[in-house]
Amino acid sequence: MDPKLLEILVCPVCKGPLVYHRAALELVCKPCRLAYPVKDGIPVMLADEARELTDGAA
Hints:
Layout: H1 3-8, E1 19-21, E2 26-29, E3 34-39, E4 42-43, E5 51-52
Antiparallel strand pairs: 1-2, 2-3, 3-4, 3-5
């Protein structure tokens, strides 16, 4: 994931910062507890495509 892209991407729900989890290929929004998938190097920034995090995740 390009570091410059990470600087400008925000959560589409709360506009908060995202953290890239390389092993899971996801961008995580901790306040919303949502994980957005990264498919073929492209972040899928749709709330409908996001995975809700469980208590142990994040």
